[in-house]
Amino acid sequence: MKSFFGKMYLTLVLIFLYAPIATLMILSFNQSKSRSRWGGFTLEWYTGLFENEEIMAAFRTTIILAFLSALIATVLGTAACTGMQFMKKRERSFIMGITNIPMLNADIVTGVSLMLLFIASRVSMGFSTVLLSHITFNIPYVILSVMPRYRELNRSTYEAALDLGAGPVYAFFRVVLPDLMSAVLSGFLMSFTMSLDDFIITHFTQGPGFDTLSTKIYSEVKKGINPEVYALSTIMFLTVLVLLFFVNYKPWGKQPKGQIKVMTKREVIVSSSGQGGRI
Amino acid sequence: MNERRNSFLAAPYLIWSIGFIIIPLIYILYFAFTDASGTFTVGNVSAIISYVNIRALMLSILFSIASTFICLLLAYPLCLILTTVTSSSSAFLSLIFILPMWMNSLLRTFAWQNILERKGVINGILLFLNLPPLYIINKPPAILLGMVYDFLPFMVLPIYNSVSRIDKDLINAGRDLGADYFQILKGIIWPLSLPGVISGITMVFVPSLTTFVISDILGGGKILLIGNVIEQLFTQDSDWNAGAGLSAILMIFIVFSMIITAKYDREDIS
Predict the structure, then answer these.
(1) B153 touches chain A (CB under 8 A)
(2) C-beta of residue B109 within 8 angstroms of C-beta of residue B214
(3) Is the Cβ of B250 closer than 8 Å to some Cβ of chain A?
(4) Mean model confidence pLDDT for chain B
(5) Residue ranges, chain B, pLDDT below 50
(6) How is chain A split into domains, by residue range?
């Protein structure tokens, strides 16, 4: 009986979570351009999508931005974690303290603070300022993903490699990095996701004539969203659904911990400042 | 360990974080306490007590208290169920909560317009069931719903983490000693899950307090929250000093929630 109510409650929450997604998917097949009327089934938004230069440009910008910012954040973050292994505990917790700031801070404050920085340094805002901002909010995800793994790492393998004559760099890439790989990848994926979905920080650091999918959607909310955007989102969603399924049964998908981390930023902090994982 | 010089690897990040985390925050304070010509003033910060601003702030606080409370109410039973119903729940949980994130969050919030509007999905169902229609779009309940929808995962995950970490032997011991389910809940599960609850609360409270997107999309632009006021000052009025002044006020709330999080974090470890 209790489990019957439990399952029903779970179902209701799932409906709540997925109702908007189902709505958007249905709208992507709706012939009528009006959101509130069903005008019959069509695939025209899917075929039109690839000829819509504006949407495709925003899509390309979004993907390039997410990839570059996640890549740079992963390199900087992993290097920082490695460096911190050689620090005193006080220095390390100082850096971790700074790392927590963007995670706990409200996005609007982070966005506004970066905007003021760019205004004050008279940098004209555009792709590069958005990229710098995305890297900034992505690095903590990488650090909070990689740091816990370093703690579990067996130091003696690295030391053994050194004793056997390997240089530190060689030992790092051949012995340490393979052990870190799943955490590094999960940090990369998390960063990629966050960058892809970000609106607020992009909104404050973008320049005129620059659009990601998010900012494009926001500017269209008032005048009505082009159904081709629904089509693109449906394709992206289904692609990720397939990929996630695939990843979950692949090497780095083994620890569901890494997967959960993709979710909510604030939880990363909680568990990793407690020297656990993140959310 | 003994090779201290290897710590230089952290230097690029340290420089980066000072340049793009610390200095920008100092700029907020600098702009908050100067006027357009750069002379010192408290006018930007004290502008919070103007009628429009204080009203927006109070409204934001009310909304965020309500959304935090509803999220907690929804999330806690959900976490209890998730720890009992499913065996490999962490993989399942991650899946059901991560997946929606891959649909653009603005679009998902926007989709609620369709569901809630006068001739939308909900009213279609209500009409079919011969129930009175629900007109909440562009009204406060719609904004509240949007907040709960967007931030529920922030509540579920920390609570789930702390509930699932509770030693099953404690619960079994309680049962052996004759406690019923509610006694176990009240005496064992709730106190041990408190750190998760606290972090969930701060995680939902801050984004609810500062959002401008949800009120924009689901409030029809008629309901101004403090986030909307700040956003307009920056992007429409280009009055950076006034915007920074109000942002500085928001930072007080954020710092407060950081302190609470840090305090409970430490207790969690010990």
Answers:
(1) yes
(2) yes
(3) yes
(4) 88
(5) 1, 269-270
(6) 62-273
